[in-house]
Amino acid sequence: MAAENDETEKAIETLRRWIAEAPQGGVVFFGGAGVSTESGIPDFRSPSGLFAQKYPYPAEVMISRSFFDEHPPEFFDFYCDRMVFVDAKPNQAHRKLADLERKGIMRAVITQNIDGLHQAAGSKTVYELHGSVLRNFCMRCGKPHSVNELLALHEQAEDGVPHCAECRGIIKPDVVLYEEALDSHTLQASVEAIAKADTLIIAGTSLAVYPAATLIDYFTGDHLAIINRTPTPRDRQADLCIAANVGSVFDF
């Protein structure tokens, strides 16, 4: 165990050296749910994650577009209770990434998360592959609604479905549900950032969700690091694999 810990510490120190020596705008960070677990937001695939819990339907079904269309009351009960965490705060990883951007080292943060914590920590160039719970819009008239408005309307509605006060259309979270396509502009910007990176850091993701997981294929730089508590299908491609909490790796 001591030898394993020593290897992990060596790998962390190597990654920190790569970051320190990177050219301006040379680092890109690609993160998943494991980046936000230290902020109290559950992940999806761990033994205690969202997909492991018992619900009337499988969790991945309940956050699909067809379920949203066919069972809106059940969708919003699940979504508002299990996927929206308005009190969550940025953790050490979020704060350090924002600091690296301010210093000109971090080119961009690409995230699969929908919690908005990277922006709350101060990051400016953030590509949200799966959207954000902070943005919501009326499906009929397009009127935007804040997350707090959505939650209040959910509570007030007899069936739990939030409707727009202007036109009575259903308000949809601006998140990418299963069966929906990623935003093409966000995807293209993410591809371009990764293609220009000298160092790509992938953290807190199982690399099991497509097409996001294929973004690694556009990296042609010098250093690829994967930070994840469990192995990923792409570990063999990485120069470093670090089995540690993301926040502890960025605690410097």
UniProtKB/TrEMBL annotation:
Catalytic residues in the record: H130 (proton acceptor)
Signal peptide as annotated in the record: none
Protein residues bound to Zn(2+): C138, C141, C164, C167
Catalytic class of the enzyme: transferase
Keywords: Acyltransferase, Metal-binding, NAD, Transferase, Zinc
SUPFAM superfamilies: DHS-like NAD/FAD-binding domain
CDD domains: SIR2-fam (cd01407)
EC number, as in UniProt: 2.3.1.286
Pfam families for this protein: SIR2
NCBIfam families listed in its UniProt record: PRK00481.1-1 (NF001752)
Name under which the protein is recorded: protein acetyllysine N-acetyltransferase
